[in-house]
Structures are given as C-alpha cells and as structure tokens.
Amino acid sequence: MRARKTTQDYAGFLDLDPRDRPLYSTREAARYLGLPEATLRSWVRGRSYPKEGSPGFSPPLIETPGNTLYLSFFNLVEANVLAALRQKHHIPMRRIRSMVEYAKRVLGQPRPLLLDLEAGLGDVFLRQGTELLALTRTGQLALREVLESYLSRVERDERGLPLRFHPAVGARLRSEQVVLDPRVAFGAPTVRGVKTSVIALRFNAGEGLEEIAADYGLQEEEVREAVVFEGLGTDAPAA
C-alpha cells in the first residue's frame, strides 16, 4: 500500500528548484523526448542483463529526485543528451558511462549531462572524450552536429542552466510553439501558458483552430502545433 504524503513531504517538494522537482512519469517523459518508454526506464531505473553465473545489473545513468519513479525537468534534459548519443550516434552505453565518470572525477562536474555544448559538454564528449570514443575527425564533427540538433531543444538561463524544453512534435525533433517550463503549469506542455491538453479537449469537441486561437489570444499555427503534439492529426483544418 502506498504511503500517504505528509506535510513535511510536500514542504520538501516545494523547497526544491522547480527544475529539480519530480514532475514527469516515464511514459510522459518518453513521449516528450520521442523515445521508447522502455529505453528511458532503463536509463533512470537501470536494467538487468544476462551474465555467466548470475544476472548482471547496469545501474541508472540518470538520478531522479529522491530516486522516485518521476523525472524532473533536469532529468528530461539529461535524457535528451543520452538520446542524441545513443539513438542517433549509437555510442555504446559503457563508453558514455566512462565519459560521465570522467567528467565527474576529472572536471568536477556532478551532472555533466546538463552542460551546454559550448560551456562544457563538448569538453566531455568531443575533446577530452575523444580517446574514449575513438572517433575520427569526421566522427567528431558528426557527433557535434547531432548534439547541437538535440541541444537546440533546450533554452538556458543566463548561467547556462536549462530553463525550457521544446519536445518532439509529430515527426519533428523540436517543437516551435509547444514548450515545457517547470515554472509554468507545473511543467506541463503549454503554448504561451495554455496547456496543450486543454486545447486538445476543445478541438476534440469539434471547435475549430481559429475559434480556439481567438479565445486564448494565440496564433492559429500555435493551436495547430498543440493539436499535432497531442496526437489529434497532422493536418487539422481551420474552422
């Protein structure tokens, strides 16, 4: 039976930076990242694998707040980097682990997967990490291109910390209008502060894009992307 939340539990939750609060289920986060849920789960919970004698265990690469089942906004950004390295460049997980440990030990970076490419991630995965990756010059350029395309999903504050995230929409890697901002609507997907789920409900009830846009002071294209993001079609007609 699940333990009931106490006042102290909620106080601790509210004391955290909004970007470090547990906000997203594995299923939600996987959808925003455009990843299989099982893949993301293995990154945050670890996974067992066959091994001679007894089963082996691969520990998680991403640490969720309080080791809960929910990911924070920062976890989402960390998973975004892993997605670029694993899904697009097929870098073995053991090498990624080596690079992450290198960054923690030698560069003093407790969470290297949160780094900006220019602010430090490049040092870990492109320059300092060259030997671990055994990449040719061409490989380094390809990896930089992949990382840059994924990292463009992340908006950062003046200190270089992740601030907003642009999730995958339809076949596109990065949304233009839909954002996840942990300071707005508890991190739910929104378009200029309006939840995409609310827009989807109205569209699903038969209201047109133009009508919905007018009610919320949005552009029709913003409403269209929200509808696509919520899986209600890729060519929604205006009213």
Topology:
Elements lengths: L6 H9 L10 H8 L3 H9 L1 E3 L6 E3 L14 H16 L4 H13 L11 H11 L2 H4 L3 H15 L2 E3 L5 E4 L13 E2 L8 E3 L2 E2 H9 L4 H8 L3 H10 L10
Antiparallel strand pairs: 1-2, 3-4, 5-6, 6-7
Helix pairs in contact: 2-3, 4-8, 9-11, 10-11
Characterize this entry briefly:
The chain has 239 residues and is mainly alpha-helical.
Any overview of this molecule?
The chain has 239 residues and is mostly helical. The protein has a domain of 77 residues: Orthogonal Bundle (Arc Repressor Mutant, subunit A), CATH 1.10.10. Helix content is 47%, strand content 8%. Strands 5-6-7 form a three-stranded antiparallel sheet. Helix 2 packs across helix 3, helix 4 packs antiparallel against helix 8 and helix 10 packs across helix 11. The longest helix is centred in the middle third of the chain and has 16 residues. The protein is globular. It starts with 6 loop residues before the first helix and ends in a 10-residue tail after the last helix. 33% of the residues are buried. The N terminus is likely disordered.
Strand order across the largest sheet = 5-6-7
How many DSSP helices?
11
> What's the architecture of the domain at 163-239 in CATH terms?
Orthogonal Bundle
Give the % helix: 40-55%
Strand content: 5-15%
Distance between the termini: 49 Å
Total E-strand runs: 7
Named CATH topology of the domain at 163-239: Arc Repressor Mutant, subunit A
Shape: globular
Which labels suit this protein?
single chain; 239 residues; mainly alpha; Arc Repressor Mutant, subunit A; three-stranded antiparallel sheet; two-stranded antiparallel ribbon; 8% strand; globular
